[in-house]
Specification:
Length: 88
């Protein structure tokens, strides 16, 4: 009779361990399904990825730097042109 309660407790512990494993597996399946649905939703909305956003942002920064450089060169050329126009 000493083994009776221990056997029941062992079976109960095994059952709880199995139930925890099943719950964890179900959780993974729900997460996977949710991620797939979220990715589908975002792709349907034409939302850009972070990588695409960062790439375009970097291109814009470089373009603005180039514009500032060209504006500076133009200002110098205009000064040179107006200075040579006055001496003529």
């Amino acid at each position: 009779m000493a083994q009776g309660p221990n056997r029941i407790l062992d079976d109960f512990a095994k059952l709880m361990t199995d139930a925890a494993g099943v719950a964890q597996g179900a959780r993974r399946e729900v997460e996977t399904a949710f991620r797939a649905q979220a990715e589908r939703f975002l792709s349907d909305m034409d939302i850009v990825s972070r990588e695409e956003h960062e790439a375009v942002k970097e291109m814009a920064v470089r373009a603005l730097d180039k514009v500032e450089e060209l504006e500076s060169r133009l200002a110098k050329l205009e000064k040179t042109g107006s200075a040579s126009g006055k001496s003529a």
